[in-house]
Write a structure and sequence with these properties.
- It is built from one helix and four strands, in the order E-E-E-H-E.
- The two termini are 18 Å apart.
- The radius of gyration is 11 Å and the shape is elongated.
- By secondary structure, it is an alpha+beta fold.
- The strands form two sheets. Strands 1-4 form a two-stranded parallel ribbon. Strands 2-3 form a two-stranded antiparallel ribbon.
- It has one domain.
């Protein structure tokens, strides 16, 4: 899933500057786990 990590609290980077955290990633992880899917979060830049 592509996500924009430049819009807290919807999405931002954790203190390691690599892990995307926020409400969008949290909800997406829950959906993927419920469906039994592997999730790959890809940070993208909005234009």
């Amino acid at each position: 899933m592509a996500t924009s990590p430049w819009d807290p609290p919807v999405g931002t980077y954790a203190t390691d500057a690599k892990t995307v955290v926020g409400t969008d990633p949290d909800i997406t992880v829950l959906i993927a786990e419920t469906l039994g899917l592997k999730l790959d979060l890809v940070p993208v830049r909005q234009i």
